[in-house]
Amino acid sequence: MKLGILGSGKIVQEVLPVLNEVENIEPVAIAARNEEKLKRLSEEFAIEKYYVGIEELLADEQIDTVYVALPNNLHFDAMDKAIDAGKNIICEKPFTSNAYEAEIIIQKAKENNVLIVEAISHRFIPNAIEAKKIVNDLGDIKIVSFNYSQYSSRYDKFKEGIIEPVFSLESSGGALIDLNLYNVAFSVDTFGLPKDVKYFANIEKNIDTSGIVILDYEDFKVSCIGSKDSAAPMVNTIQGTKGTIEIPDALNSFEEFNLEEVGDDGQYSFQFNEKGRSRLYYEFVAVEEILRTRDEQRVNELLDKTYNYIEVLTKARFDANIYYPADKIR
Predict the structure, then answer these.
(1) Fewer C-beta neighbours within 10 Å, C or N terminus of the chain?
(2) Beta-ladder partners of 119
(3) What is the pLDDT of residues 211-256, one digit of tens each?
């Protein structure tokens, strides 16, 4: 894979060291607006070329795949142009700003024989995969509670009126789409689409800085908490009539999980991840193989999940009367 990287933010700086551990991925170019940062990253990670602007990168014939890691509101246009350029795509979460955009991009990619996979780590982390299997042993599910609360380093600036993309309505930001997405996505992966979606959001300057999504599965309920304005221990539980799974970590990392069975005083701990591996390693290994072998069945399965995530997130956001500029019909 000859990879072009769109973006130079925190996630790109986390991804670049991981790519050195993955076979068959060669980052050959990176594009963003900040030339000074591009120069530093290209030198640090031995990336051959950098471009100030995505059009030049997409025109590079050496590149066969692009990794989209731009601000949320730019994902749609970047993928749209990448499809026109015939590049396969790895898109950072969230896939798009809303379900309407996702539907358009997925359909256009299929029509143009372009493969797209969303980069969202829990899908590929061994612990997460195994935990979903054990859910079937918990009996009837009754209550599920997921909490990803992390005080944002940008929140103080936000309160002072300095609005960065993660807190920007125009950039399709907010706590739901940034952190709570992982909780919602894991729920949808594990239990399917809910019967109803409600979002109780704490809103400042028209954006959700924290909130609780309630997913109604009729026979059980899921509470998804996401916060960027306060912090809490990241303890997640799936409670059933025969046992409870506890995940003492954010679902996008999933470093371990425990099982407590009803009537058993013991707790069983599980660890399937390789010690010392980045949470991102597994997704890039999997995605590289999917794209290299052109596994269209797997791509379509993952795209179905991607659409389900963004559909639920869009419903939740609309329920809280939070609307992005991107929500206007194109």
Answers:
(1) C
(2) 92
(3) 999 999 999 999 999 999 999 998 899 999 999 999 999 999 999 9
3.40.630.30, 3.30.2010.30, 3.30.1360.70, 3.30.360.10: CATH of 123-276+314-327: 3.30.360.10
Residue type at 176 in one-letter notation: L
2-120+281-295 with 123-276+314-327: one CATH topology? Answer: no
As assigned by CATH, the class of the 2-120+281-295 domain is alpha beta
Residue-wise pLDDT tens digits, 241-253? 999 999 999 999 9
Closest CA to 146 of 233, 272, 71, 85: 233
